[in-house]
Design a protein that fits this description.
heterodimer; A: alpha/beta; 8-stranded mixed sheet; 12 strands; 32% helix; B: alpha/beta; 4-stranded antiparallel sheet; 34% helix; binds adenosine-5'-triphosphate; binds adenosine-5'-diphosphate; binds iron/sulfur cluster; binds magnesium ion
């Protein structure tokens, strides 16, 4: 059962395990809408270790963002989350606003795709960033300023002293995104969640930001969750990958296994339909059809209408996420891919 | 050498911007002195960072924005000299597909009407029944059921809307379609479907594409030749294989180096040559070589002199860098096997 599976690959996690930062169990998110209830996320479970990078991939609408917005207590007002999310053993799902604010300041941080929404337009960058420290960490103004400058330099903002006094609109998109990363790192969070942080950026700037994240994973204990639709981003950065489809995890594996020995037809399909810049790709094998409509999910496997291997059972019975081999989970009725 | 369908010479697109009380408007050089040609059934990829002038170039070729200077020779005729009526006649041969599929379709028109419209305007006497038949067969051709003809764009998904846009562009049997980021807004699995469709249509109709994209992986898959722009200037142009296997311009090299590779082992091994910093303001481009502020090889000469476009040996492959030969030699001594 998804709810009870131990984290794949490494030793089973428990609250006393020092390396485990976050344990998410059976997280479910639904939205109440005029047309009825939409199940956006269904029974997601995973563990995060210190210094680990977990990639979340899937097409738009697959539930990537809502999973982590729920964990951060940032769902829209018509959204409801259930299940359990523990940060260092403390339950954080659906706790009070005040407690969440404190947790978000200290232990959990998020970087969004659109860096402009994360920054207040009428406040100088330096002021916004140092506030985090004066309010959450009780630092004095001088100390906060020094720390902010250090962070801005870490994320390679040129002329940090000068930039400290500038407003967000005076920064380029790439620079704003780096400021967002600096802001997220100020309190040395245990978990940094990055939701498509480079999707709006040029490849050159994307590469700079990804390098920054990579350095982060190598040099700090911060666990990183990288949400992306781009398997290329995952390949270069993540240790583990969860593939989502129609609000569920369909495969969860160490990064090499996911790429070289995928166990789910959807993952295999994604890999086969991606052109590559480093070599000539043969004919791409497109996945036919369209991503599922959450308002009309089929009773069986959500991928069945597009799956080349679908058979009778797939349309009737939903496959559960189970261990295919140690450390590798998949939700598919097939034992082996043909 | 392929027969030339399109020949673009010294094209410039300059926009007047700003201009306060005491100063005249400044000129933003969105496209600056760009020349290239295109053959029948050929796909030319146009790549470069946001704001480098890709869309402006595509639109100026189609005369959707007036070029500031230069010539756009279409089958021997300079489109820049045609009056509006003459240009409208040409439009059936020259079409455009946009990035945002939904926004580019009129929300108040049914899909059938959207597809028939170009037929009525380019073939004024056409009978309604024939227009309907052709719209239906075009729908089928792009993978949509003709029964959906009476539906409106908002009833379709992003991928389906892009199929409709492609059908609309193709129905007048154009010889050239400018595709401006046609798959960038689509999910990966849908991207591959649209790419396949564009390829099939090219094989069938012998249409040429100017394919604008910031995604080098897609460009590698779809294009025959590639043009790299930076701040409105042509940095390098050449056959796909040469651009990807032996890029000569430092900017092309760093663009390629920055593309994520969906292969963990490769990703771990590869040594990336990343450029630092951000794009300079296009209103105030660097003197000399526009790339010099981010170029690892820049010298004082690059500050003073603008490099001219030179042939690298094979005539079709051209590069604008003072030092491309030295850089080529250096990269070869570093990595003799070339991976
Ligand atoms: N109508 C206009 N008036 C003034 N400046 C313009 C106009 N249209 C485009 N520009 C400027 O011209 C430059 C080139 O723009 P263009 O849209 O061609 O870039 P692009 O390469 O297509 O970028 P993207 O990848 O973001 O689509 C940019 O600096 C842009 O701001
Ligand atoms: N406030 C809301 N009300 C109803 N549905 C919502 C709401 N917010 C998100 N959803 C739906 O939840 C699903 C998952 O969304 P999301 O997690 O944002 O997807 P993605 O994987 O692209 O990040 C989508 O189908 C989306 O339309
Ligand atoms: S359960 Fe059936 S339909 Fe679903 S992915 Fe596996 S084979 Fe395909
Ligand atoms: S001309 Fe100079 S600055 Fe420009 S690309 Fe070549 S070496 Fe770099
Ligand atoms: Mg999202
Ligand atoms: Mg554009």
């Amino acid at each position: 059962m998804a709810a009870t599976h131990a984290r794949p690959g490494r030793r089973p996690a428990s609250a006393s395990d020092q390396r485990t930062v976050m344990e998410c169990r059976d997280l479910t998110v639904h939205f109440d809408t005029p047309n009825g209830r939409i199940s956006a996320v269904n029974g997601i479970s995973f563990d995060l270790q210190r210094g680990e990078c977990l990639g979340i991939v899937g097409e738009s609408g697959s539930g990537k963002s809502q999973t982590f917005l729920a964990i951060l207590g940032l769902l829209a007002s018509n959204g409801h989350a259930s299940g359990s999310v523990k940060l260092h053993g403390e339950e954080i799902l659906n706790v009070s606003r005040r407690r969440l604010d404190a947790i978000r300041g200290e232990k959990l941080a998020i970087v969004f795709q659109d860096s402009i929404t994360g920054l207040t337009p009428h406040k100088r960058i330096g002021e916004q960033l140092s506030e985090v420290l004066t309010q959450h960490r009780g630092l004095g103004r001088g100390a906060a300023r020094a720390k902010v400058l250090e962070m801005l330099e870490l994320v390679r903002i040129p002329e940090a002293e000068k930039r400290y006094r500038m407003y967000p609109h005076e920064f380029s998109g790439g620079m704003r995104q780096r400021v967002m990363v600096a802001q997220a790192l100020l309190c040395q969070p245990d978990v940094l969640i990055a939701d498509e942080p480079t999707t709006a950026l040029d490849v050159t700037v994307q590469a700079q930001i990804l390098k920054l994240f990579k350095g982060l994973a190598d040099h700090t204990n911060t666990a990183l969750v990288m949400i992306t639709h781009d398997l290329g981003v995952v390949a270069g950065l993540c240790d583990e990958v969860m593939v989502m489809y129609g609000g569920r995890v369909v495969e969860h594996a160490p990064v090499d296994e996911l790429f070289y020995a995928p166990r789910h037809p959807y993952t295999r399909g994604l890999l086969a339909c991606m052109p590559r810049a480093d070599r000539d790709s043969e004919e791409l094998t497109a996945i036919p059809g369209q991503p599922p409509d959450l308002e009309a999910l089929p009773p069986g496997c959500a991928f069945a209408p597009r799956c080349p291997y679908a058979f009778g059972r797939c349309e009737l019975e939903r496959p559960i996420l189970e261990t295919a081999q140690p450390g590798h989970l998949k939700a598919c009725h097939l034992e082996e891919l043909p | 050498m392929t027969r030339r369908l399109l020949q673009v010479e010294n094209l410039r697109v300059h926009f007047p911007v700003g201009g306060g009380l005491f100063s005249g408007p400044r000129m933003l050089k969105a496209v600056d002195d760009v020349s290239f040609s295109l053959g029948p059934a050929e796909t030319l990829g146009v790549v470069g960072e946001s704001g480098c002038g890709k869309s402006s170039l595509g639109r100026a070729v189609l005369q959707l924005i007036p070029p500031t200077a230069g010539r756009v020779i279409w089958q021997g005729e300079d489109l820049c000299r045609l009056d509006a009526d003459a240009m409208n006649v040409k439009r059936s041969e020259l079409q455009l597909v946009f990035q945002d599929p939904l926004a580019s379709l009129n929300p108040r028109m049914s899909v059938g009407a959207i597809l028939r419209e170009p037929l009525y305007s380019f073939e004024p006497g056409i009978a309604r029944s024939e227009a309907e038949d052709r719209a239906a067969s075009m729908m089928r051709r792009v993978g949509l059921r003709p029964e959906m003809m009476n539906r409106y764009p908002n009833e379709f998904s992003g991928g389906q809307c892009q199929r409709i846009s492609i059908a609309r562009a193709m129905i007048s049997r154009p010889r050239l379609v400018v595709c401006d980021e046609p798959v960038s807004a689509l999910d990966v699995s849908i991207q591959a479907q649209i790419i396949a469709l564009l390829r099939e249509l090219q094989a069938e109709y012998e249409v040429s594409y100017i394919f604008i994209s910031h995604d080098l992986s897609v460009v590698r898959h779809l294009c025959h030749r590639i043009m790299v722009l930076y701040l409105g200037k042509l940095m390098e142009i050449g056959p796909k294989r040469e651009i990807f296997d032996t890029p000569r311009h430092p900017y092309t090299q760093s663009l390629l180096s920055a593309v994520p590779i969906p292969d963990p082992r490769q990703a771990r091994q590869r040594e990336q040559k990343l450029i630092e910093g951000d794009l300079p303001s296009p209103l105030n481009p660097p003197s000399g070589c526009v790339f010099r502020t981010r170029c690892p090889h820049a010298t004082p000469l690059c500050l003073k002199a603008t490099p001219a476009l030179e042939s690298t040996g094979s005539e079709a492959h051209q590069v604008a860098c003072h030092y491309w030969q030295d850089i080529t030699r250096d990269t070869h001594t570093e990595k003799p096997t070339g991976e």
